[in-house]
Amino acid sequence: MDHRERSRIYHHNETHGTSDNIDQNTAVDDVKRPGFFERVKEDIEAIISVLLLQSVFSRSEVS
């Protein structure tokens, strides 16, 4: 489960500390943000998926 999936499960909207869904028993992995390399990896995956979609669409237009 990556950061985006955890965020959807635990944090539906910004609470600015007024929510009680995080307490001392909450695991650190459930609330920490992704590190630099994790964000870079996610950005590269997004770029690759966009490029693959573009190549699929451009091939389908040619056919």
UniProtKB/TrEMBL annotation:
> Compositional bias (Polar residues) spans?
18-27
Instruction: Quote the biased-composition stretches of kind Basic and acidic residues, using this chain's numbering.
Output: 1-17
Q: Where is this region: Disordered?
A: 1-27
Q: By what name is this protein known?
A: Uncharacterized protein
